[in-house]
Amino acid sequence: MKKIKIFSPATVSNVACGFDILGFPIESLGDEMTISKSDNMGVRIIKTEGYSIPLDSKKNVATVSAEKLIQYLKPDCGFDIEIKKNIIPGSGIGSSGSNAAGSVFGINKLLGEPLTLKELVKYAMSGEVASSLTEHPDNVAPALLGGLVMVKSIDEENIISLPVPKDLFCFVINPKIEVKTSYSREILPSRVELNSMTKQVANLGSLIHALHTSNYDLLRSSLVDNVIEKHRKKLIPFFDEVQKKCLELGALGCSISGSGPSIFAITKGEENAKKINTEVIKIYKKTNIDFSTYVSKISSEGIKIIDSI
Ligand code: HSE
User: Fold this and answer.
1) What sign results for the dihedral spanned by CA atoms 136, 296, 299, 254?
2) pLDDT at 210
3) Torsion, CA 222, CA 153, CA 196, CA 188, rounded to 10
4) What architecture is domain 168-297?
5) Is residue 132 scored above 90 in pLDDT?
6) Which of 11, 48, 181, 267 is catalytic?
7) Is 134 a catalytic site residue?
């Protein structure tokens, strides 16, 4: 294989109580990336389309993660990367994770798959530093593996695919304002109150149990963020109003997607997600902020190959 074209999905991370460890892909949004073998050693971005991203290989998440992988695999060729950027940077739906995961996925395929998808997580994660100044795996792991993924640590055995009841859907609204992940992390306190920690741990534990037992009442009471949301929601216009509406309409949970400004809700069934979509659009239409919304399954698919030669 000399060239591969892939679709790398947008992802919802944190998922309320799983800061930096939980995430899932959504179906209808992602970036297209084409990765080609080259006689020139190293890795570079040769073309971008769509939303603007850095071309400098030290600043682009795709090349930063690819460099790490190349340092390890030491291939006898280089790689050229083209990116059609459909996910807005700073949107909170894994814009950087999509490209950080996509480049290592593509290079690994072109080299005959020396590494497993789980082994790729740590290389993909290293690319996140270029945008958020920290390595966090909760976008790249679900982008690579698909489904709802919990990353306890980056060792293969600690990257855990969780069961997802088949009627779980999500609604996402992406207000078109940029919130840099680095800033959204900077405003978080470095210490957490003991009682907030206890509530968050209880919610995460019961969320995992609810997923294993398809217990929707328990899902509803567990999809709550007691630690992060209260600090970040001030960066997101109309967050409280949207969250209230989603919960009133029956969402199982609603919180900030990743580092924001996107907001997600999890629903039982597609109809509920569509109803929420209609009503939240009404809220945002009253503002002068441009936005997009998505209704999707909790997608079981990660990165998909579109074409290869
Ligand atoms: N877990 C990361 C954060 C996701 O919340 O900062 C960034 O998209």
Assistant:
1) positive
2) 98
3) -120
4) 2-Layer Sandwich (3.30)
5) no
6) 181
7) no
- In degrees to the nearest 10, what's the CA dihedral of 105, 20, 68, 65? 50
What is the whole-number distance in angstroms between the Cα of residue 14 and the centre of ligand 1? 7
Distance CA 124, CA 117 (A): 10
- Condensed to tens digits (0 to 9), the pLDDT of residues 251-276 reads 999 999 999 999 999 999 999 999 99
Return d(Cα 170, Cα 83) in angstroms, integer: 26
- Classify residue 238 as left (phi > 0), alpha (psi -120 to 50) or beta: left
SS3 assignment, position 9: strand
- pLDDT value at position 238? 96
Is residue 128 within 8 Å of residue 61, measured between CB atoms? Answer: yes
Beta bridge partners of 291: 175
**Cα gap 127→109, rounded to integer Å:** 18
CATH of 3-162+300-308, one of 3.90.230.10, 3.20.20.80, 3.30.230.10, 3.10.20.340: 3.30.230.10
DSSP state of 51: S
Closest CA to 13 of 221, 284, 244, 260: 260
Q: How confident is the model at residue 59 (pLDDT cuts 50, 70, 90)?
A: very high
Q: Which of 135, 185, 256, 263 to mutate to test the pocket of ligand 1 (most atoms within 8 A of CB)?
A: 185
Going from N- to C-terminal start, the domains of the chain cover 3-162+300-308, 168-297
Cα of 132 vs centre of ligand 1, distance in Å, is 8
Long-range CB contacts (within 8 A, 24+) of 279-282 = 279/245, 279/249, 280/171, 280/173, 280/242, 280/245, 280/246
3-class state of residue 266 by DSSP? strand
